[in-house]
Structures are given as C-alpha cells and as structure tokens.
Recover the amino acids of this structure.
C-alpha cells in the first residue's frame, strides 16, 4: 500500500487562546482513519504570518498538507499568500470567484465589500475547490518536486466538513491502493485502565501489525485497535475472551445506550435512586431514544428525610451509619425496586465535595448498590477524589455499568 503522509495545519488565534475548541482536527482525524489514512502531525498557529513558517516546515516532510483557516477577507487571512510565497508563484484574480461572490451577496440583498474580493485571489497553478456553504473557496496546489500537495480549506466547521467529504476524501482515497488499515474501538466499563492493560496487553502486543492504544475516561476505558481487518479480528477475539464481561455494545456508544438496548431486548425495567449524582443518572438514561419503555421511576433523594419518606430507608440506619454508607445505599436500592416494580434498581450516595468530607468519609467517597428481582443485592464502595463534575460523571457511569451487569444476571 502506498504510504500517504498527511499533516494538518489549523490557523486561528481563537484556537490558541481557548475561546474556540479545535473540533475540526478531532473530526478530521476520525474521518481519515475510517479510510485508512492517518494524520502524522498537527500544527496550530495564530492568525497572521505564522502560517508561512508552518507551511514551509510541512512542505518537504509530508505528501499532503491540509490547511484550515485564513481564507477570509481580512488582512490577517494570509493562507493564500503563504501558499503563493512557498510555491514562488504570483497571485491571480479568478473571475469565476468574483462572479460567485457577486451572486452570493446579491442574493442576500447586500453589497460586496471590496475586501471580499481578496477571496478571489488564487496562487497561479492552484485548483479552485467550490464552497457551497460560504464565500471562501478552497484551493488545491498539486505536489511538486520536493514539495507536498497543499489543500487549503475554510475554518468554520459548517464549511470545512462538507468540503472534506466532497472534495478532499475522494482525492486522498484515490492515492491508496490495496487493503487499508481501519479502526475499531472497544469500550470497557467497571474496570480500570491498568487492569485492562494487565489483562490483555501481552497477547495484543504479540499480534503482528496491530497498533494498540488505551484511553481512560471517568468510569470507562477505550481499547483502540488499528490495523487490517484480519489483524483487528484476532485482537477482538482476545478482548471478547478476556474482557467480555466488561465490554459494552454498541462499541462506540456510552454505557447508558448499552443498558437501554439490553433492557429493551429483554423486556426489563430499571429504577434509580440518586443522592450525590442529583439526577444525572436519570438524565443520561432519558437521553437515549426508547428509554421510556424501560425507565419509569427515578428518585433524587438528596436529603435524609427524602431517603426515608420516599424509599423507606430506616431513620435508625441513617442516624447510626450516615447517608453515605453501605447499609443506607442498599436500602435505597431495595426501596426503589419494591416501590417501582422494576426488575433492577440502582442507588448511589456519596460526597461530591468540595466540602462535607470527614476523616472517616473524605470527599470522593461513594457507596453504590444494585438490587434485582430474585437476586441478592450487591454493593460497592469507591473513592474518586476529583472535581465535582468528574466525580458525578464517574459515579453515574459505574452505577449504569453495574445495572447492566445485574440485568444480565437475571
């Protein structure tokens, strides 16, 4: 297979000062990898003359350089000028772009500003790529001796992404022949990143031509496999054999999707009883289409009196052990199961912080419990001393994962 070394340059001061997220880079990386193409290097530069040095640096080491941004009408939009300087060619006015600009603004009943005609200047020898969603066309400068092919695209995602799909991918895919490497992501819940690696790394690393990566998120671990279909199939067999109890389907979805899908398929119902997560678990469930068929009851019992009056938690247990305890969270889960008539119920109670912790129960302490019809109630204590949002996300993920495991035991 012919190699295709791709580098990407994103321009825009807003990307470096944090006011705008660089979503184009993440999206492009995924789309390219789906077609067996890889980004070898990503460079982000501010508006202005920094683009010139960045393009020069990429020109000789890459086969293709994709540049987004800097094609607008203002004085700091220098991407076209940088390409002309790099290639040693003059800038020429393209009358077809002028006509397109006139038509674009006339349709909107607005006059064309003289600065807009900067977008009609094209380095000699470059191909114009039409932009159906904006005023700045893209440009493609063919590769020359010792220099990569350059593809310039506008920065706004609403313009950039359609042009990648229509103008860029078909050209780049044509550069490759033979079987292309692909990507598969397997999501694990209920197990830590180090335990995942300990369980499968030796076997996976022994598979020739497999590229392997782990990515941990609160309560989840992604195992990413890159390689030919035959190679990925061997790795998948290892994952399913060793980590089958922790893998969720569909692979790319969150655990809430996997749980709702399983409950729907089995005709089961779920109830929730939340304290420290404040309704986040119910929110994640109801974000999934079809959740209404499996999720009818959810309680947010933040105060002790609510745990008692709504779920039947014993006041004596609350007084003796406190709300964040195994005894209380088990009664919360069992109370939710009994009052809802569901097949599975989950409960969580913890200390999200930043205040409220003690020496015995520091911030980050949480108890979880899962109750199921005709099954013994299960409980678990975890400690996750992070910021409040990360804590709540991790707890909700673990609670949903435990509910899926409980449902599969019915």
């Amino acid at each position: 297979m012919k190699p295709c070394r791709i580098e990407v340059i994103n321009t825009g001061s807003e990307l470096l000062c944090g006011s705008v997220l660089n979503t184009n880079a993440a999206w492009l990386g995924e789309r390219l990898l789906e077609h067996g193409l890889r980004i070898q290097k990503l460079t982000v530069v501010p508006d202005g003359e920094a683009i010139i040095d960045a393009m020069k640096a990429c020109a000789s080491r890459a086969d293709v350089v994709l540049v987004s941004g800097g094609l607008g009408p203002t004085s700091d939009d220098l991407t076209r000028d940088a390409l002309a300087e790099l290639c040693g060619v003059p800038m020429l006015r393209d009358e077809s772009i002028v006509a397109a600009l006139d038509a674009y603004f006339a349709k909107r009943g607005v006059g064309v500003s003289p600065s807009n005609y900067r977008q009609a200047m094209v380095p000699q020898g470059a191909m114009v790529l039409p932009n159906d969603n904006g005023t700045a066309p893209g440009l493609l400068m063919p590769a020359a001796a010792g220099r990569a092919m350059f593809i310039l695209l506008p920065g706004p995602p609403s313009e950039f992404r359609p042009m990648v799909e229509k103008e860029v991918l078909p050209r780049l895919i044509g550069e490759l022949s033979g079987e292309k490497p692909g990507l598969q992501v397997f999501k694990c819940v209920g197990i830590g990143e180090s335990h995942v690696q300990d369980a499968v790394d030796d076997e996976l690393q022994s598979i020739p031509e497999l590229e392997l990566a782990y990515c941990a998120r609160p309560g989840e671990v992604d195992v990413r496999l890159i390689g030919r279909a035959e190679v990925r199939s061997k790795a998948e067999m290892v994952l399913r054999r060793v980590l089958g109890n922790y893998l969720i389907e569909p692979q790319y979805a969150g655990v809430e999707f996997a749980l709702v899908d399983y409950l729907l398929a089995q005709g089961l119902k779920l109830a929730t009883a939340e304290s420290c997560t404040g309704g986040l678990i119910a929110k994640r469930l109801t974000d999934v289409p079809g959740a209404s068929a499996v999720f009818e009851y959810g309680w947010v019992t933040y105060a002790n009196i609510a745990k008692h009056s709504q779920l039947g938690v014993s006041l004596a247990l609350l007084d003796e052990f406190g709300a964040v305890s195994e005894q209380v969270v088990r009664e919360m889960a069992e109370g939710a199961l009994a009052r809802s008539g569901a097949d599975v119920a989950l409960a969580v109670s913890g200390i999200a912080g930043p205040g409220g912790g003690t020496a015995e129960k520091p911030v980050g302490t949480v108890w979880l419990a899962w109750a199921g019809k005709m099954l013994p109630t299960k409980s678990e204590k975890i400690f996750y001393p992070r910021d409040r949002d990360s804590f709540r996300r991790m707890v909700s993920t673990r609670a949903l994962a435990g509910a899926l495991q409980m449902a599969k035991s019915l």
User: Anything to note?
Assistant: The radius of gyration is 28 Å. The mean pLDDT is 91. Residues 102 and 112 are 7 Å apart (CA to CA).
